[in-house]
Every structure is written in structure tokens, then in C-alpha cells.
Amino acid sequence: MSQYDHIQQSAYLANMQLPKLGLVLFTFGNVSAADRSLGMFAIKPSGVPYEDLSPAKMVIVDFDGKTVQGKLRPSSDTQTHAVLYKQWTNIGGIVHTHSVYATAWAQSLRSIPVFGTTHADHTTVDIPCAPPMRDEMISGNYEYETGFQIINELKDKGLSYEEIEMILVGNHAPFTWGKTPEKAVYNSAVLESIAQMALLTEQINANAPRLKAALIKKHFERKHGPDSYYGQ
Predict the structure, then answer these.
(1) For 192, phi and psi rounded to 5 degrees?
(2) 9-44 pLDDT, tens per residue?
(3) Phi, psi of 46, deg, nearest 5
(4) Which residues are catalytic?
(5) Which structural domains are found in the chain, ordered by start?
(6) How does DSSP assign the chain, residue by residue?
(7) What Rg, from alpha-carbon coordinates, does the chain have?
(8) Cβ(111)–Cβ(126) under 8 Å?
(9) What dihedral do alpha carbons 191, 188, 229, 89 form, nearest 10°?
(10) pTM of this prediction?
(11) Which terminal residue of the chain has fewer beta carbons within 10 Å of its beta carbon, N or C?
């Protein structure tokens, strides 16, 4: 047994949820699982079909993005994951997909407005869309800079990564994160659903108003507030 078996297993199981949830096509996505005590994370190997994955094929990488264990090349998005793990010390899982609806909003360079209570159950703000990357960032270490593209957008919006666990990268696609890989996958599925609902809302009523503040507060706090009462 290896000291990395648990994060390889966790990353494998989380990655296998992406096709089951309809969040990926072919190999368009990845999940990583971190162990803070080891300073390492396990991530999907690049370009390997989901049906060919196994826990042992998950690549072990440190928070500087250097491969520590594994015969396969890690995901092309590994450097983005590494930056986020290094900068945000309270996350344990990251997901990147090109899910259809969330990606469509990212390609439209639009944040997703809070139209309804489903959105407010998970966050009180619009899902932010980071602006397109500057040319000098693109020509540099692209995946590394994508991490800072995400971080800087939250800073510019005055948001904490613990306050909102999802973002759209302009012209690209969504990233989500959480304390565990399972929560990051959950957030990815929720984001896709919210993105679809928002699109349909605007198609039905192009002038649909945002959810009023009292309902945003009520729905978020009943699940996440100090006096929350949702669930068992």
C-alpha cells in the first residue's frame, strides 16, 4: 500500500461521477483530491477515457505542480489546480468541466444572475465570470495563470473562495471546489443546473428580475446560517 492510496481512490471515484452526472463529454474534465498533511493531490491523467481509469492511474502531484508519482502525464489543467491548492488552504477538491450550460455562460462572458431560490440555496451572489485572459498571460504559463485568473476575479468582486465555490472562466469553462472532492463535484452539478435554469428563465422572460434580497437571505441562511434548519 502507498501513502497516496486514499487520495487516488478519492480522485478516481470523484472523476467517475462526472460522466454519470452528464458533466463531461469524452475526456473533457478532471477532478483532483488533496491531502493537506502530505502537501499532495491526486488528479486524473490527461486524455484518458473515463472507462479506462483506475485509482492506480491517478497521478500524484505536489502543490507546486510537480509530478511525484505516476507513469501517466497528469491533466493539462494540473497547474491551475496546484495554484488554487497553494493559495486557498481550506479546499480539498477541485473540479473542471466543459459542461454545456455553464460553459455557454462562460463563452458569453456573463456572470449567472441570482434568479431563483435554487441559486440562493447555494450562494447569495451571481456566479462570477472572470474576464478573458490577457495576451501576456496566455503566452506565458497558461494553466498556471488560469489559477490566478480565478483568484483575481474573486478578489476583484470582494468574494471569498469559502463564500462561493464556483466560477466561470471567460471564453473557457467552469471550475468548482470544496472542502472535499465530493463537495466539489456536487458544486459542479449544481452550477450546471443553475446555468440551465438561468438560460431558460431569460428565454421565457428576457426581463426577468433578480430574486429579491429577502428571499436570497432566507434561502441561503436556512441551509447555511447559524440557525439553519434544512436537513437532518
Answers:
(1) -60, -40
(2) 999 999 999 999 999 999 999 999 999 999 999 999
(3) -70, 130
(4) 121, 230
(5) 5-224 (3.40.225.10)
(6) --TTHHHHHHHHHHHHHHHHTT--STT-EEEEEEETTTTEEEEPBTT--GGG--GGGSEEEETTS-EEE-SSPB-TTHHHHHHHHHH-TT--EEEEE--HHHHHHHHTT--B---SHHHHTT-SS-B-EEPPPPHHHHTS-HHHHHHHHHHHHHHHTT--TTT--EEEETTS-EEEEESSHHHHHHHHHHHHHHHHHHHHHHHH-TTPPPPPHHHHHHHHHHHHSTT--S--
(7) 18
(8) yes
(9) -120
(10) 0.96
(11) C
Which has the closest alpha carbon to 44: 66, 22, 14, 80? Answer: 14
**How many residues in the chain?**
232
Cell of 132: 478573458
Residue type, 114: V
Order of strands, sheet of 29-35, starting from the edge strand that comes earlier in the sequence: 67-69, 59-62, 40-43, 29-35, 93-97, 174-178, 166-169, 129-130
Q: Cell numbers for 81, please give them.
A: 489546480
Question: Do 97 and 174 contact (CB within 8 A), yes or no?
Answer: yes
Question: pLDDT tens-digit profile of 164-216?
Answer: 999 999 999 999 999 999 999 999 999 999 999 999 999 999 999 999 999 99
